[in-house]
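=== Structure Prediction Worksheet ===
Name of assembly: unnamed complex
Input type: mixed (protein and possibly other molecules)
Chain count: two
Listed entries:
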Amino acid sequence: MQPTTLNGALPSDIEIVVVGGGLLGLCVAGFLAEEDREVAIIDAGRPDGTTTNAGSLHVQMQSRFLRLYPDQVPALEAGLHLYPKAVDFWFELQRHLDADFGLKASGGLMVAESREQLDFLAKKAERERSLGLDSKILDRDELDQIAPYLGPAVVGAELCADEGRLDALKANTALRRWVRRVGVMVTGETSVDRVSRDGGRFKLDTSRGTVRAATLVIAAGPGSLTLAEPFGLTLPVESEPLHMNITEPTDLFIGHLVQHADRMITVKQLSSGHVVIGGGWPADLSPSEDYAAVRLSSIIGNTSLAQHIVPAIGRLRIIRTWAGINTPTGGPGILGPIHGAPNAFLAIPGEAGYTLGPLSARLVADTVLGRRPTEDLAPFSPSRFR
Amino acid sequence: MMAERSQGDLTLKIEFEGETLEAHPGESLAATLTAHGIRSFRTTERGAERGVFCGMGVCQDCLVEVDGRPNERACTLKVDRPMMVRREVSGRTPPAVGVVPSRPPITIEDIPIKRPEVLVIGAGPGGLAAAYAARLAGAEVLVLDEGSAPGGQYFKQCSAADVVPPDTQHREGRQLIDDVLTSGVTVLSNASVWGAFPPLEFAVTMSGSTFCVQPHQAIVATGAYDRGWPVPGWTLPGVMTTGAAQTMWRTARRLPGKRVLIAGNGPLNLQLASELVAGGADVVAVVEAAPTVGVRRAKEVAAMLATAPGLVADGIRHLSRCRHAGVRMINGSVLTSVGHHSRGVLATIDGREAGEFESDVVCLGYGFHPSNELLRALGCSHVFDPEQRRLVTVRDARGATTVAGVWALGDCARLGGARVGLAEGTLAGFAAARALARPLSAKAARLEAHAEATAARHRRFQKALWRIYRMEESLFPQPASNTVICRCEEISYGQVEAALAEGADSPREVKQRTRIGMGRCQARYCAPALEDFLAERIGRLPDEYCGFAPRVPIKPVRVADLANPLDV
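=== Predicted Assembly ===
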């Protein structure tokens, strides 16, 4: 690997250690440091360098999820009310940091190409409305008023008012600045090989020495699986590499987060004018599993579908593709204290984790601080996996 | 309004922002516009004007809208019909979003796959030589080339025979191209190989459609592109690479401007000056970074005369033509900035001689960088060569890389010029055929032995040449806070400096904080400059990981083309 001079020395003894420097780790550490706690982040890769998210703000239930995991729908519905709050919280965090995340919540459209798909969306919207979401069905004439960029194949769509997008690069940059400003120590390229108890403290054996901490927060995405094992937990977390494409910038013309009732796709346009095309197409983990590689089949399938739904995309050129690691949890997130292991916490947000990230981090930080979180964390308890 | 084809088809009419321009059929749109004094093709998001820079489809700065299609590269777009051309203006409403036709979605299964025995990528001297050799040994060979006609940069051909009398270099290239075509090799032009996927698959778009190639053997001969020279004003319209100016002249007999200043390091600048002088341009000066050749270099001159007397004679011919025309030859100085001037651009030079020059155009020829993106995407090992200050592909004497079935030759593997490329092409072509268990005939074996000797001879020539042309490191551009380092995203050295102050310590970290390298050219100019900057500021030495990770697509690829399988 590349030599590094950026990362601070590994602290040998610290009040709180957060393992994982992605969105969750950054936010938890930042919230705790703002309360004058002494916090260090340890990341196996480049700290905050692996945040490769595409920046969709999801609220409505993704049809991809409903199709892939029908058995998990009840659990998903139980946590659905968190999503609009999570979007609000992104805006709150942006204000709090006095930063520009490129946030926009102008609504999300899930498009249908047939009467059958539209019926499916109508039932979904009705169910979501009963759970408190602002969802409604638009016919083609109504779509022409608000989304003239949609292609002729689209017959209607579900509009969910709270959805949107942000520029993940801008957000991540602002979050990095924030955690450094509030005094979080950040150490990268340091893997945590073993976690154990040492008296009243946690002992972390890392690739660069031993760290002791009074409080442990595990926010390591798929890497949380092995870290949680010493506490008797078997987390259902997986490592799911997903493909993304980005076009050259153009004038803003796509105002919504666009998805499909029956196919894997997300399309959105960032404030910079770049169109991001994603939605769950597969990528590969490299043999060493430390980075993900793109597949030609995903480039072809994903982008050709995008120009079918939004024809003007056909005129644009793809300038980059990449893959990011999603962490499915087999249902809702895994948030809060590990029972039977005082001062150990988990922070894994679950489906559409980037949307849920800051709010999930706030809830976990509150439990670490001994405050009562604003949401009931019982449905998200790590104890489910004991 | 429809543009009309003029009488007799001698010229084509180009409508540009209300003006009607006469184009020679077959020339690049950039050549047409430049010949009519149009230098600004585009306005960036920050309101900066841009025009032709690289002239070879790499920098993406000459983008124009052609017949309603945005972001067409004027430098690679051949004028073969009347066209309506508009400047690209950032922030202008895109044309007719609602009426763009779409295609039904496809999957990878719809994309046809070609499975040639040997695939050669690049139809420059090396690629053509490789194709010829592999075919001679009996292999089935497919050549893919991004250009509109084979020849690459060195053997680029005249676009219209009635306009352009060919010279020796043209004729040598024509002969090789004809030999390749008559030998039964399939050569596809306008074919952009934009992706390479392990173990051995390539993604290609050609004339608006997509196909894949899964060859038994792949020979990568993708050449090099001009190095950037990040000084104040290097992004201005009217500043282009020596290669861009030479392409206009050699392919279309269009001058890049009437008054030309040439600044750089290496013999290509002298050749350009000589050619432009012959074409009637006023070459204001040739500013060479290397010191004058003195008696101290007698050993190198002797070595060059011994290895390639013809090339030395060419050089002397170019020099005497320039001298004869009264061109100022300045040694030991470099371009330090370019500014606007009422009638063109104003260039400042510094070094042994300092001064200012007015001209229509400034040509920059400060060397090259290898186009090794496909090789790196396939996982071929590279090492950093401190002498060349470039990545070099790890190869054996025949061009075999560290990945089975992948061969690399010429400038993309290690900068060495066209003659080395030609010889290495022959060697790699035969080696690939041998890997297919094709025995070499006596003739082939002779050619192979000859190529081996030629390659060695021209490597010795290059070594001596670049000792003579070695420039002092103190003359490299001094990064100034306001100077643009990343042309695409318009990132300045000052912004990079700020990222370092925040703790960034690698190209990747600087990229995430500033967006450097995230634009259309895929970091081809800023990544090497950033490596130099990081080496100087924080002592981070370039290594195998230098630059940014190679990303697919290595050249921008239009979504409509991806959704359109090649009709076979």
